[in-house]
Design goal:
This protein is about 60% helix and about 0% strand. The chain has about 200 residues and is an all-alpha fold. It has one domain. Helix 1 packs antiparallel against helix 4. It starts with a helix and ends with a helix. Keywords: Membrane, Transmembrane, Transmembrane helix. Pfam families: L6_membrane. Belongs to the L6 tetraspanin family.
Length: about 200
Amino acid sequence: MCSGNFAKCLGITLIPLAIICILCNILLFFPSGKVADNSDDITDEVFYLGGILGSGVLMIFPALVFLGLKNNDCCGCCGNESCGKRFAMFGSIIFAALGAVGAGYSVIMSCVALNHGPKCFTTDNSVNATYPFMDGDYLSNRTLWDQCVGPSNIITWHLTLFSILLITGIVQIGLCAFQIINGLIGTICGDCCGCCAD
């Protein structure tokens, strides 16, 4: 397979993943799907925008670059130094690294959020939401979930969305790593190694 075609496939895959991350981060601004009375009631890590900036916006740029790498017949440029395919593949390595950094940021924020747990109300007459789980014990001990009395299902909401961000970020890092390898091959061999061997 031509390295340009492979990069295009990666770009097509990264765009929906980036959209999923953006949507998850937006949904986290609405604890349990409801508008929060106060911004202080929203988990702090949501405001770091790991899904919107890290796995979202910073991933859109590499995806678009990967999609644009295959503009013409790969064999038409082999052996032609002026076509710039090798330089384009080298440039894709830089964008892939940028995407991996963004996804890595999202993964770190998701891990921290999962460890801290959600902000929630611990009593019915609580004025402000607090962090009842700061050490991650709630992940292995579901009986601790009773400490949160509201919003309803906040722990499931928190775990589901941050887990999606975590898994999607790891997949994005893997895809960007594939493109770094693919870009190195494309830089050395040109867009299509089979053609360059002729």
